[in-house]
Every structure is written in structure tokens, then in C-alpha cells.
């Protein structure tokens, strides 16, 4: 017995230490938000959170109020659910709340990329230069050229063939076209020198981008479970195969053979090369740039087009605006005529389409905005209450349930209203209220503050250009107009634009 006692005490100490490590003994301290550790040591609520983030957070809000701390996979997350209090997180100094640590861990897990110092700062500076302002003029032209190559390459064939109906899934078609055009606009085109002519080079672009999209969709479907680290062995091997494939297809060596590479991509590559980053790690960063720039716009294009097709009044309003913009620039679409030149300036004259885009994103963009707590601090709520937050925890916002579908902020929130973000005079509406107080953060598909998506203007233009061309060049309709709008796939909560649980069939043909 004397021999067994030390062993039993050591075992007990080990168990207690393990439970402490798993967070089993964490208690709410005075001044902290309500604490809910969940049913499973260390894992906490992660299974329910992963199953349906929106439903879970609404349950926690009903139970605990507008602020609460929960355990998810060994980490403690304090969720702030009051949009009037979002500014206390968005505007907090990075010395206290920082997003880079969390982001670095995610991109390392998902893309195999190890961030360098000031990575986000360099990306932000380059994006401001190339994806906004004058840089956006160049990118708009590049996007238009590639959209026309993918959508209109059959123009000029026999007139009766142009009138043939084509059938496809609307999600597949929209995602396919927008992804491929965006990829070519950013990462460059095949040089005519190799295939021998510009037309053959365009054909190579179509074929290469089609292969890239096909493989990207495989990775895209694995992405949520990959990010959460719950892929089964077979899918994990497939994810690794796809990573290597993209590292090769997007390698800096292959990029050197391309024409028309965007300044955004080229500058990112040159910057890392100057800082001594090896080629293999630069290749991984190129894959990260592709996903970050093109992983959400295609799905958003699907929802936008579907909502317009489901609402004749909305479609008529946007169609009329598109025709008016073309008329103002003396451009006419006719058989055998020149392709339209859709410029950035033309896209600035579409307030109705702008509102439809913003309304679409309100309904389908659902990111979780996360910050790492770098030191003990307090968060002040809009009602004047303050809560203590611990160093090492996370603070998170989920705008989708907190504001996007809050009926007090957006009446009838689950209904698409194309003019929700228009004033009676036809300008941009920004006055939305909660509890009688005007909200600054009334729609947050791009995030907010210094973490706001730096490519949001380019992404918005991608959506608008795609819809503009569809309305200008094509007749299109749902195969079954009575088919209901598909549900969103709840497995993708937290990762940007949501995707449908199933595709919906449509048909399209050239109008001339």
C-alpha cells in the first residue's frame, strides 16, 4: 500500500492537471461576461457551434444576453451580439485586440503558408494601390476582357447557333464564369507567342481556367472541415494533393511566362522575393491570394442573379438601369457589332444594382470576425456596462445574426428587397436603427475596421460586371420558375459567402 500511494497521488495530480488544462475548472470572475464552458472538457460547445453556428449563437444570446464567453476547442471566445457595441471591438488598438495571430494560424493550417512580418500591412498597401481608385480602372478592364472571352467567345458563329438554348446549373455557371475571369484578370493570360495567335491564346486561357476551377471546387468543398481540422483521412490526403496541385499551377515560375499579370499579384510576389522568401513558400501564398480573391464572389454572383430572376420587379429595375447606362455611352448591342466597353465609370452610375448587390450580401455573407486578446482589458457596451476580458482569449462578432437578419434593423429580414439600400431620391441609404439609435455597422459582409476586406471594390465590380453582361447579351430563365430558392449550406457559416444546399437549373442563350 505504501508503494501504491505515491503512484495513485501522481495519477490523481495528472488527471487534475489535465482537467485544468482542458478548462474544466475555469470560473467566471467578477466583472466578466457570462461563462458557458459547454458539455465536453476542452471541446466545450464546438460540436454544436460547428453544426449550426447561427442557431447556436442565437441560443446563447437568449440564455446569456448580448455578451457571453464560450469554450470552443480549448479556446475561450467572447461573442458580442449587440451591433451598437461593435465599435468597441472594431476600433480597439491592435496592442489589445489583434486579428493577425488568428489569421496566421488559419492560413498555415489551410494553405501551408507561413506568414512573414507585416504581411497584412503589405497586402493592405498593395490592395489600396491596385484594387481601388485608379488601379481599379485597370482591373475593371482586365476583368471585362476575360469575362467576354469566357462568356462570348462563340459570338460570330452562325446566327441560328447563337439562338440555341444552353442549360446549366445556375450556381455552377455563375461560380465558374466569375472565378475563371477573376483568376485570369489577376494572374495573367497565356502569351500569344506560344500558341501562335491571340485567338489560340484565348482558347488556352479558357481551357486552363476550366481545369483550375474544376480542381478548386474540390478543394472548396473540403475547406470548412479542413479549417476546423476534422477531415477524415481520405479527404485529408485529397486536400494535400490539391494543395500541391495549386502550388504548381500558380507557381512563380509559371507566372513569369504569363502576360497581363495584375500589379496586385506581381507586387505581392516581388515583395516576398525581396524579403528572401523561397519560391515554394511564394507558391503557397499565390494559392492563398487566389482563394481570398475568388472564393466568395462566384457564390455571391449566383445568389444575386437568382434573387433578380425570382423578382420580376427587381429584374426590370436593374435591366432598365443597365440599358440607360449603355444609352448614355452611345453603345448598342447587335449581331455582328462590337463588344461593349464596360468601364469603371459606367459602373459608378448604377445605384439600383449597387443596392441589389448590398442586399444580396446582407442575406448570404456570414463571416465570423475574430480578434486575439493580447492583454487583460475591458469592453464597454452601448448600455454603459463594462466587462473584463482575459489575455489569451478571443473576441468575436457574428454580424449575420446580430444585425443582418435582425428585424428591428432590417424589417422582413429574410426577404430580398432590391431597393432596401436606396433612399426615396435614389441615393445610397445609410440610416438604419436599433433601439432608436442610428447604427454605424448595419451591414458587414466585408468585415470592418482595419480588417475590412481590401479587395471589396474589385469584388463588387466583378459581381456587377457579370450581371451587366448577362442582362446585356443573354436571355435567361429558370427551367422551373416555381422552384423554391434553395437553403444555404449551414456547414459554411463563418467563411464568407454562403453556398446553396443544391443547384438550381436554368437556361440561357445569346439575344442576337
Automatic annotation (TrEMBL):
Gene3D superfamilies: Cytochrome P450
Signal peptide feature range: 1-17
GO MF terms, alphabetically ordered: heme binding; iron ion binding; sterol 12-alpha-hydroxylase activity
Binding annotation for substrate: 109, 296, 394
GO cellular component, as recorded: endoplasmic reticulum membrane
Pfam families to which the protein is assigned, alphabetical: p450
Topology relative to the membrane: Single-pass membrane protein
CDD domains: Cyp8B1
Entry binding sites for heme: 453
Keywords: Endoplasmic reticulum, Heme, Iron, Lipid biosynthesis, Lipid metabolism, Membrane, Metal-binding, Monooxygenase, Oxidoreductase, Signal, Transmembrane, Transmembrane helix
Named cofactor requirement(s): heme
BP term (GO), one: lipid metabolic process
Stretches that traverse the bilayer: 285-308
Main location group: endoplasmic reticulum
Family (UniProt): Belongs to the cytochrome P450 family.
Protein name in the entry: 5-beta-cholestane-3-alpha,7-alpha-diol 12-alpha-hydroxylase-like
Gene transcribed to yield this protein: CYP8B1
Amino acid at each position: 500500500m505504501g508503494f501504491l500511494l505515491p503512484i495513485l497521488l501522481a495519477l490523481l495530480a495528472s488527471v487534475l492537471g489535465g482537467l485544468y488544462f482542458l478548462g474544466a475548472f475555469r470560473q467566471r470572475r467578477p466583472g466578466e461576461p457570462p461563462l458557458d464552458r459547454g458539455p465536453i472538457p476542452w471541446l466545450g460547445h464546438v460540436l454544436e457551434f460547428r453544426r449550426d453556428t447561427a442557431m447556436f449563437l442565437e441560443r446563447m444570446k437568449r440564455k446569456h444576453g448580448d455578451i457571453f464567453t464560450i469554450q470552443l476547442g480549448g479556446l475561450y471566445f467572447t461573442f458580442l451580439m449587440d451591433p451598437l457595441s461593435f465599435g468597441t471591438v472594431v476600433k480597439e488598438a491592435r496592442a489589445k485586440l489583434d486579428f493577425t495571430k488568428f489569421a496566421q494560424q488559419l492560413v498555415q493550417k489551410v494553405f501551408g503558408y507561413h506568414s512573414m512580418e507585416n504581411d497584412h500591412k503589405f497586402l493592405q498597401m498593395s490592395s489600396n494601390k491596385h484594387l481601388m481608385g485608379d488601379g481599379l480602372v485597370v482591373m475593371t478592364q482586365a476583368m471585362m476582357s476575360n469575362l467576354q472571352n469566357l462568356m462570348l467567345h462563340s459570338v460570330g458563329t452562325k446566327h441560328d447557333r447563337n439562338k440555341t438554348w444552353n442549360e446549366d446549373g445556375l450556381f455552377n455557371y455563375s461560380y465558374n464564369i466569375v472565378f475563371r475571369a477573376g483568376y485570369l484578370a489577376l494572374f495573367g493570360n497565356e502569351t500569344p507567342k506560344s500558341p501562335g495567335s491571340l485567338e489560340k491564346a484565348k482558347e488556352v486561357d479558357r481551357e486552363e481556367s476550366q481545369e483550375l476551377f474544376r480542381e478548386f471546387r474540390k478543394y472548396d468543398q473540403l475547406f470548412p472541415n479542413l479549417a476546423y481540422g476534422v477531415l477524415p483521412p481520405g479527404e485529408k490526403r485529397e486536400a494535400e494533393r490539391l494543395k500541391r496541385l495549386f502550388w504548381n499551377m500558380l507557381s512563380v515560375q509559371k507566372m513569369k511566362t504569363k502576360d497581363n499579370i495584375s500589379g496586385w499579384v506581381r507586387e505581392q510576389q516581388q515583395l516576398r522575393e525581396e524579403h528572401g522568401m523561397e519560391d515554394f513558400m511564394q507558391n503557397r501564398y499565390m494559392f492563398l491570394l487566389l482563394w481570398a480573391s475568388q472564393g466568395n464572389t462566384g457564390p455571391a454572383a449566383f445568389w444575386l442573379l437568382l434573387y433578380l430572376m425570382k423578382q420580376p420587379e427587381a429584374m426590370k429595375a436593374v435591366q432598365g438601369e443597365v440599358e440607360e447606362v449603355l444609352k448614355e455611352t452611345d453603345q448598342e448591342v447587335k449581331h455582328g457589332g462590337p463588344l461593349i466597353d464596360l468601364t469603371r465609370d459606367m459602373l459608378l452610375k448604377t445605384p439600383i444594382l449597387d443596392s441589389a448587390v448590398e442586399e444580396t450580401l446582407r442575406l448570404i455573407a456570414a463571416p465570423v470576425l475574430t480578434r486575439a486578446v493580447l492583454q487583460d482589458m475591458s469592453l464597454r457596451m452601448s448600455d454603459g456596462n463594462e466587462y473584463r476580458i482575459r489575455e489569451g482569449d478571443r473576441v468575436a462578432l457574428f454580424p449575420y445574426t446580430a444585425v443582418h437578419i435582425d428585424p428591428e434593423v432590417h424589417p422582413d429580414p429574410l426577404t430580398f428587397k432590391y431597393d432596401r439600400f436606396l433612399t426615396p431620391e435614389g441615393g445610397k441609404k445609410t440610416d438604419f436603427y436599433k433601439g432608436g439609435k442610428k447604427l454605424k455597422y448595419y451591414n458587414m459582409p466585408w468585415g470592418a475596421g482595419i480588417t475590412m476586406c481590401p479587395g471589396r471594390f474589385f469584388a463588387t465590380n466583378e459581381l456587377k460586371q457579370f450581371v451587366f453582361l448577362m442582362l446585356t447579351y443573354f436571355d435567361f430563365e429558370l427551367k422551373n420558375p416555381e422552384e423554391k430558392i434553395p437553403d444555404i449550406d449551414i456547414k459554411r457559416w463563418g467563411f464568407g459567402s454562403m453556398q446553396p444546399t443544391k443547384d438550381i437549373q436554368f437556361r440561357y442563350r445569346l439575344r442576337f
